[in-house]
Amino acid sequence: MVHSDLDMKEWKKEQLSYFQNYLKNFKEGTQQHTTLKKKVDELSRLI
User: pTM score > 0.85 for this model?
Assistant: First the structure.
């Protein structure tokens, strides 16, 4: 299956949105929040 670059970029944006919402489930300052926030920020720079 071949995906266009535009389709993949949209998929990445959807995933980023999903993880940003998921991040809200963790209290700031916890290890889970810190780790996930770092990865979400990293992903957002790649898009």
Answer: no
